Amino acid sequence: TRAVRVRSVVRVRNGWVAVAGAPENVLTAVRAGGTLACQSALASLGVWTEHDARVHVRIRRYGAAPVGSSTMVVHRALPLVGLQSARAGVDSPEWAVAHAVVCQGRRDAVATLDSVMHRGVMTRPRLETALAQLPRKFAELLLLCDPRAESGLETHLRLLLRSVGIQLRVQVNISGVGRVDLVIGDRLVIEADGRTWHSDRESFANDKRRDMALAERGYLVLRLSYQQVLFESEYVLQVVRGIVARGEHRWSGRHRRAGLVVL
């Protein structure tokens, strides 16, 4: 009470106070009578989720819902037991992942699971334990996961291409170039450029250097943007299928004669 009176802390709701600089999205969740949840909680850990600027809040399963707001998504707690509890107004990774898998579409849900494992936020056994309490269709998403994926865009591409039977390899190391996101056949390299990681000048220059090194070695490179992967997927499929249909994803006799194929 003294701290509130001298304004060194702010009363958020009964039993809760916040120091100066407390995250605004957490304050929103606590004021609503819940905890920061789902995509909002995972975003603070650097985990990929579907882009949603609204604040996701988890409230008690049978608690009173807060007054609706266009800037908030309210989740009633799933009937799960044995998960780590929330801390300082933010859901544990287990709670956040369980709600995010149910909240998002199939590809985004798999991308979130890939990201959680790739970043070391949760191990696969912990994910299995958390998701085992959900309906089978959600728990089985783990069968589609690959923790090698370095971005959600890469996961989207992998699932998109495999959905039409295109075989591919992920995170392939190419001598003189380094790891590339996806390789189809022998020589078709597909790189996914996210909104953040490829936007600065240094990353842009490095991408161009890698593209030149791949071309020098006879590889065919498709570098796809965030917009193309998520919102122009049919066109992406059309282009990739055309390349595969023409056999351009395979080494040919001219590549061998040029000494580009390492036997």
Order of helices and strands: HEEHEHEEHHHHHEEEHEHHH
Coarse morphology: elongated
Which residue ranges are poorly predicted, with pLDDT under 50 across at least 5 consecutive positions? none
**Major sheet size, sense and barrel closure:** 4 strands, mixed
Strand content: 15-25%
Q: C-alpha Rg, in Å?
A: 23 Å
Helix content, binned percent: 25-40%
**What is the overall pLDDT average?**
92
Intertermini distance: 76 Å
Helix/strand class: alpha/beta
List how many beta strands DSSP finds.
Answer: 9
Strand order of the largest sheet: 6-7-8-9
So how many helices? 12
Keywords:
263 residues, 40% helix, 12 helices, single chain, three-stranded mixed β-sheet, alpha/beta, four-stranded mixed β-sheet
Explain what you see.
By secondary structure, this protein is α/β, with parallel strands linked by helices. The chain is 40% helix and 17% strand. It is built from twelve helices and nine strands. It has a four-stranded mixed beta sheet with strand order 6-7-8-9, with helices on both faces. A three-stranded mixed beta sheet has the order 3-4-5. Strand 7 (178-184) and strand 8 form a beta hairpin. The chain is elongated. The model has no long low-confidence stretch (mean pLDDT 92).
Strand-helix topology:
Elements: H1 2-5, E1 9-13, E2 16-19, H2 24-31, E3 35-36, H3 38-43, E4 55-59, E5 72-76, H4 93-103, H5 106-118, H6 124-131, H7 136-139, H8 152-162, E6 169-174, E7 178-184, E8 188-193, H9 201-216, E9 220-225, H10 226-231, H11 233-245, H12 253-257
Parallel strand pairs: 4-5, 8-9
Antiparallel strand pairs: 1-2, 3-4, 6-7, 7-8
